[in-house]
Structures are given as C-alpha cells and as structure tokens.
Amino acid sequence: MTPIRVLYVEDDERLARLTSEYLGSHGLEVHVLPRGELAVADVQRIQPDVVLLDLMLPGVDGMEVCRQIRRRHDVPIIMVTARIEPADRVQGLEDGADDYVTKPFQSRELLARIRAQARRARGDLAPRQDKIVVGGLTVDLGSREVTIRGAPVALTTNEFALVSSLAQRAGRVLNREQLLQIVHGTADDAFDRSIDIIISRVRAKLEDDPKNPRILKTIRGAGYMLTSGDP
What we know:
Elements (H helix, E strand, L loop, with lengths): L4 E5 L3 H13 L3 E5 L5 H8 L3 E5 L7 H11 L4 E5 L4 H9 L4 E4 L4 H16 L8 E4 L2 E4 L4 E4 L2 E3 L3 H12 L7 H9 L8 H14 L9 E4 L3 E4 L5
Helix pairs in contact: 4-8, 6-7, 6-8
C-alpha cells in the first residue's frame, strides 16, 4: 500500500522533528515546511494526502495559507493550533480546514486523525455502490464526483463524506453525533460547530438559495436531512 504522504507546515523545528519521527515510525511519509509562503506550491509538487498546518506561522499565517490552499486544492487540511477559543476554530473551519488538533496534542490522536482524513480522501471508506441520485443531485462514489443538475460541484474531503453519507440515507435525519462520526471519525471531543460550518459550505455549493435550503434541510431539534429538493 502506498504510504500516506503528509505536508507538515510547522516553524517549531523541535516539534516538527519529533512529530515527523513519530509519524515516520508508523509508516507515513512526512515533508516538513517551516514557513507558509511555499505551501501552495509544495502541495502541487508533493501531492500530499493530508496537509498538517500550524496556524501560528511567521510571515504568512496559517489562516491565510489555509485559504490559499483551499482555493486551489481539495486536499484534507488538519489545522494545529494553540488557540482554544471556539471562535478561532470556527474561523479555521470556515477558511476551509477539515479538522483541527489543539496543542499540546497526543501523537496517537494526531496519527489517527491523519489516517482518517487520508482514508476519506482516497475513497477507502466508500461503500460498494457506484452512483446515488437524489433529485437533481448525483454522487459518484467511485470517482468521488458530485453534480447538481449536471453541473460539477467541487467538494472538500469532509464535504464529500457528509454529502455522500446523507445521500445514501436520503429522506432520513442524521443527528450531529452521527455526522461528527462520519466527518471526523469520532464524536469524542469533537467541535460541535464544525458540522454547522460544513453544512453551510455545502449549502453554498448545492442550493440556489442557501438561506432557504430545499436540498439539505435542517430538522429542528433533530439534525439534518438530504431530500430531492422538490417543493
């Protein structure tokens, strides 16, 4: 099996070395970058399965790096932050990050999150079914492509995981714990607002009027449900 390739953007040399050694000892291929300016170019050059991105970087900070990467690539981004305020996490997720780890982190947790994101990006978790059609929405699980009324929709790894899971259960409500499990691989210590942010990003891509969604609906007090979009 091809090893998981990680681009690790971290200016703390000691932390980067220790983390790289740990991940490398578990079969991952890690490329360290101490500054954010070249991150977009290195994503193109290295083609990583996951980007591990520190937010407190010299020069261009991690938030801006995240935005630049997301504008060009759908690679999973795990942000690493010493900031514990929910607003900081919300900002990172709104800027396109897929997951987060708070410093100081447990190496085993970081490894698990990287592996989970890589599995989703590679499609290893996709069920043995070719296409799902719900109204004007088509989800191709093999090619990991999504179209709405024939128009392609660019989704990040987590967005695709959420849409495909809801499409497979069209007409059924999934609560936040179920969605957190799907997107992050665990509902433990997960950031509840992250689901709302991903839902908001998906609606902006699927809905004609995201503020009045007809496809990805909120079921008050219960969760979210994907429908055909019919009146």
